[in-house]
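Allow me, if you will, to draw on your knowledge of protein folds for a short while. I have a record of one protein: its chain in single-letter code and its fold written as discrete structure tokens. Could you please explain, in whatever detail you think fit, how the structure tokens follow from the sequence? The record follows directly beneath this note:
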Amino acid sequence: MKNILFLHDTPLHTPRGAELTINQLYDIGKEKYIVNIDNLKNFELTKSKIANSDLIIVCSTSRCSYELNLITFILTLKTPYIKIEFDYNFCIRRNILCTVDKKISNCCKPDKFHAFRKLFAQAKLNIFQSPKHYQAHYEFYGEAVSNHHIMPPTVCVDDLKPSKNKLDNKIPFFGDLNYLKGGKAYLAYAEEHPEIEFPVYGRNRLSQEIPKNVTFYKPISNKKVLEILGKTKTFICQPVWPEPSGRLAAEAFLSGCNIIANDLIGTFSFDFYPGNKEKAIKDMKQALVDFWVFIERIINNEFQNESNNLGKVLVYKSYGGLGDIFFALPAIKRLVDVSENVHFAVSSRLVDFFKTHLKTITIISEKVAKNQEHLYDGIYELGNYPAFRGYNLPHALKYPTHKKVKQHAIQHYIDTVSKLHINIDNSHYGYPYFQTKKNLQEPYFVLHHGAGFLLKIWPTDQYAKLIESIYELYPKLKCKIIKGPNDPEIDKYFKKPMPNVEYITGGMTDVGKAMSKALFHIGNDAGITHVAGAFNVPSVGIYGPTGPGSWGIFSEFNELIWGKKGVCDLKCNYDVILNCNHRVCLTSITVNRVLEALYKVLQKAYPNFSKTLLKVNPELVIEKGINDCLLTLKDEELLLEFHDNKMKQNVNSLLNETMPKNNQEDSFISVFNILKERNIFFEIPRF
């Protein structure tokens, strides 16, 4: 006999819809299979049970302490599995209140959200509780949940006891009286109808005054629930969250109750509601049988998931700045593997640049694309994240994760296109997008001191001081300054001749050539910084009024400086930025702070360089004593006590940016490692 394993995070004696359904499925399945249930308390035990199973049925897991590890483990196995979704378990709240309450944001964990997409996509079958329940998941995940079946609530229809004699003086509530299940609406109705009794078969979970006509009783069995519903004339079902199914609502419907409901109940999205009780009963009985038919087909390898490619695809990115286009590239590249071909429409000035660097995608101008739309099977407009102009652009895709998952804009674009096909990989976007080759014969770095919105730039005189400081550090290193037509004049701020400076004043093709061989890049929150990211150039980004959260640098090795943090509490929007006279978020950033960030980047990006320099953190404050030394870095202090003169000499050598020769003593190595780990000093490449 085949071994079937249910994974569910709640004991099955709990009298709720999910547990009642699993019990029903278990009772039928054990007649033909060896059926086990694991309540997810011990990961090693769970893995052992999975290893001995022929099929896994993944139910609810959000109460499991090792949920993400469990999902990762399941995804690595060849053992087939079915996903039965009873809630919205990809969300940390187990519900999707964000879809009904716009004040709720960042309510999902990115890792969990993406793990569940893979879980749905690789499942042999995904089972949802109602058409509304499935549609909510489809809006989030698109084709990842396309292998699905919608199962009506498995009401014990043989236990229904509808009575012709209905009581109009009692309106019951089953389960704990809480906010999400509509407890407040129930109490409000009780207050309006003091002549009616309101028995609650569960605990009070609301922190408000309870009307005198509301009485609490112990929970009762499902058979007793059906007996009471059979005599009930009116039933209230007004949940706050989108109810996946609403088994109680279905039971009340089949018991002949008049239902006071809202539009958030999944059961009422079936075609049998409200006028076809016979079809509802037939479908509910058949649901339990159908489930085990699916199991049989999967075990016999008769259940094959198929997906066609998207054909000829055209992608627009019609709105947003230069940086937004580069943020969208990983998403557009994801379409290549699931399409016959992908054409990317860009403005005429960008055609040559992208033709040079995007090898797997056909680049055409937007004007040409508009006249050829009839040639494509699918046209997708990525617009701009977030959708500042809404979704009124033709062919616009919606960003389902906006305000729900806190992550980089790049990942939002990827999540959006991943809705289009089940096989799109929505994992990390990888490095680099474009091919690069560092130029160590004539080494140089790239700097961009401007931005499309000039009020976001670090003061130009500070950039000039920074270039001079880097020149003192690396006198053989050239600086290629990208200067657009509207960028500030920087040369007038140099205190001395700068023979190492070269200006890149051409178009994107010239910018691309400079980026492709650069050793590192420094710039503002601007498009050119994100061009550097596309080439995976180690970068330092200087951010002021606009936070780096969704629009931060995406180079593999980067450091972000957000000057606003800790110096200004104002929430900036366009009008605030225009009327800000001090711009303290940018003017407070010192050259030393940028140099510190640069040292961090260089140390990370070039760890195995043949020749290195020892550099003390320029932000470090040093107070030397006779037998000790106090090192202060921002808010942290480190007191070094010298046990002997040799240790004192060694520490002074490090702080003077020289390494003691041939010193292999354990005490010195220990101090050296501690100082390096705490960013007291850095080992950077000697260019």
Summary: Residues 157-269 form a domain with the Rossmann fold fold (CATH 3.40.50.2000). The CA atoms of residues 129 and 245 lie 5 Å apart. The chain has 21 helices and 26 strands.
